[in-house]
Amino acid sequence: MASNHTPPPRPIIICGPSGVGKGTLIARITNKYRTQFGFSISHTTRAPREGEEDAVHYHFCSVEEVKRGIDGGQFLEWAEVHGNYYGTSIKSVQSVQNQGKICILDIDVQAVQSIKKYISQNSSSQLNPVYLFIAPPSLQTLEQRLRGRNTENEEAIQKRLAIAKTEVEYGLQEGNFDAVLVNDDLERCFEEL
Questions:
Q1: Does domain 12-192 match CATH 3.40.30.10?
Q2: Domain residue ranges in the chain
Q3: Residue of 49, 68, 147, 188 marked catalytic
Q4: Alpha helix locations (H) across 17-134?
C-alpha cells in the first residue's frame, strides 16, 4: 500500500558572509509572501543588537542552554562563530514546515557544511534543502557595509572580513550551492531570489 504522506516543503538555506544582506532579503521575502515562507529562528549566545527581539530575530540564550541543546541532539547544526554560539534547532525548522510553509534558514558556510553532513548521516531525513549563496560584489563593498552598520569595533570588523574571504571562496566553488546571487543591487537580487 502506497503512503499518502506528502513530504514537507523543501527548506531554503540562504548563506553568505556577514553584511552581505541576507537578513534584509529574508525579511522582504517573509513579509511579502507571509503565507508561503517562514523564517527559522536561530539560537545564539551573542548579545542582542539594537532593535533585535528575542524569539523574533534570534532565540538569545546562555552558553549553558545552547550546550544542553547540543548534547541533547536538539540542533540540526551549530557552530561557534565570532566567539559566540549559533545554531538551528530541529524544532525551529519543523515548526515552520508544520504550518505548510517553506522554511528559510539564514546560516553561514560552516553551518551549511554541518547540515550537509547531518543529511548524509541521517538517511531518513526529509530536509532536502535548496542551497543559495548570497555574494557581495566585492570584499571592499562588504567592508563598507560592515563599517556602515556602526555595530562593531575594528577588531570585530577585521575578524568578520577574514572569515568572509574564506566564505566567499567556498560559496563560489562549483557544486557547493544550487545557485549564487550577487547582491550588488538589492531589488535585482530580491527578484532573482
A1: no
A2: 12-192
A3: 49
A4: 22-32, 63-71, 90-97, 109-121
Distance between CA atoms of residues 129 and 106, nearest Å: 12
- 73-123 pLDDT, tens digit per residue, is 889 999 887 789 999 998 999 889 999 999 999 888 988 998 998 888 877
Nearest to 139 by CA among 153, 157, 154, 113: 157
| Dist. CA 91–CA 80, nearest whole Å | 20
- For the stretch 45-55, pLDDT in tens is 999 999 999 99
149: annotated active-site residue = yes
Is residue 160 among the annotated active site residues? yes
Query: Residue 77: CA atoms inside 13 Å, Cβ hemisphere, count?
Result: 23
In the set 34, 68, 149, 188, the catalytic residue is 149
28 a catalytic residue = no
Cell, residue 153: 569595533
Residue 25, C-alpha cell as written in the block = 532579503
pTM over 0.85: no
CB count in 10 Å sphere of residue 78: 21
